[in-house]
Design a protein that fits this description.
Residues 1-21 form the signal peptide. Keywords: Signal. It is built from 1 helix and 8 strands, in the order αββββββββ. β4 (79-81) and β5 (84-91) form a beta hairpin. A 4-stranded antiparallel beta sheet has the order 3-2-1-8, with no helix packed on it. It has a 4-stranded antiparallel beta sheet with strand order 4-5-6-7, with no helix packed on it. It has a domain at 41-126. The chain is mainly β and 127 residues long. The longest helix is centred in the first third of the chain and has 17 residues, at 5-21. The chain has one helix at residues 5-21; strands spanning 41-46, 52-56, 65-68, 79-81, 84-91, 97-101, 104-109, 120-126.
Length: 127
Amino acid sequence: MQFSKSTQLVAIALCTLQASAGPLSAPSTNNNTLATRATAVRIGALQSDGSTVAWVAGVSQCSASLIKQDPGNFCELDFTLDGLSGQFTVEGCGGPLWLERDGSFYANCPSYSEAGACGVTTEWSCS
């Protein structure tokens, strides 16, 4: 069986390409392109009157910012947090909660419990 010169060259080229390609592997990640993980925010209630408050996780609950005075619906009310820029709102009351910063999604807020301090009970963690 004889092959033409052009068929032989194509076969050599394909073998060379396959050999140089090597096995398939997952693309490498570049840490500069990975999404930044949101700084965790805790949401809870003051034991004294049920007011809703929020604070940056890892910071004392004593530094909590007021979201809403007295118990009740605390969604869609602007508040700020020490250590984080922007205006925050809690969204999704009546279902799963999430946090927005400056009108854009920031983090989901599943139920969460931790030891209380300064008369604050933690109810959700947004991260």
